[in-house]
Write a structure and sequence with these properties.
GO terms for molecular function: 4 iron, 4 sulfur cluster binding; metal ion binding; oxidoreductase activity. With about 80 residues, the protein is of the alpha+beta class. It has helices at about 1-20, 40-45, 70-75, and strands spanning about 25-30, 50, 55-60, 80-84. Strands 1-4 form a two-stranded antiparallel sheet. It has a two-stranded antiparallel sheet with strand order 2-3. A hairpin with a 2-residue loop joins strand 2 (about 50) and strand 3. The chain is globular and about 30 Å long. The structure holds iron/sulfur cluster (2 copies).
């Protein structure tokens, strides 16, 4: 049912936004190990991460939902997400 699906999606978005506003995640990148492969960028559902001029940057930390998918896919284990 379309309306019900939309309510569920809005509820999920509200939960993510509420979490982001109350506690901003701290995203720590070990630049000695990061080779800017972009795998974390590709999987991040909130578009928190971006590669700029060959370097990984955190563009929207307030949007992070702490799903930790970026940590799971990183081949160099050089990104960490913590609650601030
Ligand atoms: S997946 Fe790991 S190595 Fe690749 S850009 Fe992200 S933090 Fe850097
Ligand atoms: S924890 Fe999830 S939302 Fe946050 S930066 Fe990593 S992949 Fe993106």
């Amino acid at each position: 049912m379309v309306i019900r699906d939309e309510i569920i999606i809005l509820t999920i978005k509200f939960t993510w936004n509420f979490k982001g506003e109350s506690k901003m995640a701290k995203i720590i990148i070990d630049y000695d190990e990061c080779d800017a492969c972009g795998e974390c960028v590709d999987v991040c559902p909130m578009e928190v991460l971006i590669i700029v001029d060959g370097k990984l940057e955190v563009q929207h930390p307030e949007e992070c939902n702490e799903c930790e998918v970026c940590m799971d896919v990183c081949p160099n284990e050089c990104i960490e997400v913590e609650e601030d």
